[in-house]
Every structure is written in structure tokens, then in C-alpha cells.
Amino acid sequence: MPLGIVISNHNMGYKTLECISSVFNSDLQSVQIFVVDMASSDNSVSVIKERFGSQISLTCCNEDLGSCGGLNIGIRQALDTGCEYICCLGEAVTVEPAALHIMMRFMQSHPHVGMTGAKVYHRHMPHYIQQFGISIDFKNFRANTLYADCADSPDLPSEVYCDAVSACAMMVSAAAVRTVGLMPDDNFLYWDDMEWGFLMKQAGFEVAVLSDAKMYHSANPMRRCDNTKVNYYLTRNCLNFFMKYTHPEKCMKMSIVLLRSIFESFYLHRMGQAHNMAQSDLAAMNDAVYGLRGMAPASRILENDESGLGFVNFFEEHEAVYMEDDDPFLEQVIRQINPDIQFLQLPGKNAVTIIRCKSILGIKDFNYPLDFSDEIVYIDKNYRMLATREDAKLVKDYEASLQLFLYAMQPAVLRRITEMRGIEL
Questions:
Q1: CA distances from residue 145 to 22, 149, 194, 421 in whole angstroms, order as listed
Q2: From CA 53, how far away is CA 70, in angstroms rounded?
Q3: What average pLDDT does range 350-370 have in this prediction?
């Protein structure tokens, strides 16, 4: 069997059915599908069994091992059955008929490539790219999702060589897995795929993403997660990754950059009255510093109190807007909130002016008096919005608060690096 498909399911049975159906409708002569259920509490197992029965291999775990834990079980099964290539798919992903064949054929003709990815689109806005590869930036200490939210275009490259691809649309060769090992599973969720890609490149394999291999992901960028899980694991595992792999000469800078990022998230959650999310930021940082890995204690995962309603309500209540800089993706998001809203070519008396910025906390010179005008709003790359006098005051106080935080926390991060890597900084 040349190709095995691995899907880790947790309480997403009906989406998993769509994913499996799209695989069976693909341009493949034969394929074996391994579904691993992570202790779902809904009817996932029953609906998957009822629909596909013996057509797939279904493994049911008694506990949630995280997405990487589930994928690793399926990857082992695929290796044991002799699969030469293994494709990991997210439950919320569907594949175009030719995608899997294109990816496998590319890997067969490029044996130095250990990992490939697909061009993944937003299913609700299928002309916009959700992800087209991932780069790991050791200068700014972050992962960059390439071409995220860009409109698709024939001018984009047909192949992108990068550092990693998302585990929701990833194919690996059995040879690369036997060399590097399975996906790192102490992350539990998030950063496992990025660390795996990094390790493959360290072992001499290349990572490539293919434009002609197209998949669709149903996650909506404005959809709110019910709890703080995503925020916690992304924050904890990002900090752990860079503490683990950053060159010793860059560790001082790395500690400052990542602590600034964590405090920025904490401060923005404070501005938004999202107290549970703010606690999640600090818990993730502390657990990374003190070496807590794997599944977090239940006390770390709280109800998500970041409603995002301010952004939605703001545009529901306005009839016209003007954007200083064209942003087709943001325009589509706003039109989904308010289909009747008008986008003006010039500022208007009754229209709100949108100014885009990298981060609202980085604003230094406001284009309006700080007693605030409802005619101007700042929106950053993560759709955080500065829209009130209170917001403006908190932004002015941010830098002084940040310096106190760095003074308190940087020594702890540097101690952790020394302990985990046995190096002097």
C-alpha cells in the first residue's frame, strides 16, 4: 500500500465524515485510511462506524492524547502496514480529487523531500488562502504562515520550500519518519508539526508545499473557541520551542522578544476584559518556564471570556466605512458581519475611517485627539480594535508596564534554558 491517510478525531465526527468522503472521491487507485478517535464524548465513533465500517481502520483511545498523540498512533499503524507515504489530515479538511495524487507523485520524484503540504483555502471564502507553508523565524522568534489570507493568484509560486507545514494537510515519507522519528508528542497540541518539520530539515530533508494540491479548511478566522485551550498551548509550546532550539548567542534577545509577545497578549486581553484569557497567557508562560509538558492540568483550561463581540457589534452598527489601505480580506470579513455596509472611496462625514496597524499597542502617534473621535478606528493584524478613550489610555500606559514585567520574568526564562540545555548564558 503506497499511501496511508491518518485522521485524528476529537468530537468532530460529522466533519470527519466529510474529510473521509473527500479522500474516497480522490484520484487514487488504492488508499488505506486510519482514523484515531481521541476519547470523543459525542457520537463521533458511532457515526464513523455507521458510515464507513470496514472501509477504514478505526482506533478508539480511552483518553485524549492530543492531536499529535492521535496522529502518531495512526502513523505507526500506516508504517506497520507498509505504507511508503503517510498523509495527515485535519478533521475539518476536505481534499480536491487530485491533491493527494499530486503530493505523492511529487515525493516519489523528489526523494530528498521528507514532508509536503497542500495549498489550504478558507472553505467559507474559497478564493482566499488560509496557509501555503510555514516559515520558522529565528530572527523574530515566531512562526509565519505563508500567504495567509491572501487572494489566490496564478502569479504565486507553484512550489514553496519552507520550514514546516500544518499537520492538517501534511504528507511525509516513511523513510523520513524512520530517520527522524514520530511527531514530537510532548506538545499535546500545536507546534508539534512545526517542530517535526524543523527536525526533518535538521536531518537533511526538504519541506515543500505544492500549489496544485488544493484542500479546504472549514475553520473561520472570526470563530471563537469555547475555552482557553488554543491560547494556552500555542503560547506554552512556542516559548518551549525557541528555548529549546535558539542558538545560545541569541537566547537573550529571544527571551525579550517572546516575553514581550506574551505580555502584549496579556495586556490586550486585559483591555478586552477577558480575564480568563489573560490568566491563560500567564499560566502558559509559567508552565513553559517550569518545564510542564504534555496535557495541561484541567485548572489551566478555562472558559473563553474573549467574546469578540465588540468587533462584530461595531460594524453591525455602521452604515459606511473608508479604509486608508485596501485590504480585500478584511473587507470580506466586514461584509460577512454586515452585508449592507458601504465601502467608500474617500472619507465621508458619516463613515468610520479604518486605519490598519501591526498592533494597536504599538501606536505612538494618533491621527486624532486622545479625547477620541468615533470617526476613526485602528484595527491590527489580529483584528484587535482601538475604538474608545479607555483603549487609548491603556495604550499610553503599556510601555511602562511592559518594562516591569520584563525585569521580573527574564531571569526565570534564562534559568530554564540553562537547565534544559546544559549551557551557560
A1: 25, 9, 11, 28
A2: 19
A3: 75
Q: Give residue 322's domain range.
A: 309-387
CA–CA dist 194, 134 (Å, integer): 8
Beta strands 376-380; 93-95: pairing state: unpaired
Residues 6+ apart with CB under 8 A from 350: 319, 320
Q: Counting every residue, how long is the chain?
A: 425
> Could you tell me how far CA 73 lies from the centroid of its own chain?
22
Whether residues 273 and 357 fall in one domain:
no
The verdict on 68 and 16 lying in the same domain is yes
147, 182, 217 - which closes a domain:
217
Residue 56: in which H helix or E strand, if any? none
290, 416 Cβ separation under 8 angstroms: yes
**Measured between alpha carbons, how far is 284 from 240 in angstroms, rounded to an integer?**
10
389 three-state secondary structure: helix
pLDDT at 21: 95
At 87, the amino acid letter reads C
396: left (phi over 0), alpha (psi -120 to 50) or beta: alpha
Q: How many domains are there within the chain? A: 3
Rounded to whole angstroms, the Cα distance separating 300 from 284 reads: 8
* 48 located within any domain: yes
Same domain, 49 and 163: yes
pLDDT in tens, 246-294: 999 999 999 999 999 999 999 989 887 889 999 999 999 999 999 999 9
Residue 79: count other Cβ atoms within 10 Å of its Cβ. 16
Single pTM value for the model: 0.84
Return the axis-axis angle of helices 229-245 and 192-202, rounded to nearest 10°: 20
The CA distance from 101 to 316, in Å, is: 44
Q: Which of 73, 66, 98, 71 is CA-nearest to residue 87?
A: 71
Would 251 be classed as within a structural domain? Answer: yes
Q: What is the pLDDT of residues 204-214, one digit of tens each?
A: 999 999 999 99
Which of these, 302, 309, 305, lies nearest to 274 by C-alpha position? Answer: 305
Which distant-in-sequence residues (6+ apart) come within 8 Å of 353 by Cβ? 321, 322, 323, 324, 347, 375, 376, 377
The separation between CA 302 and the C-alpha centre of its own chain, rounded to angstroms, equals 20
- The pLDDT tens digits for 238-249 are 999 999 999 999
Which three three-digit cell numbers place residue 257?
A: 522578544
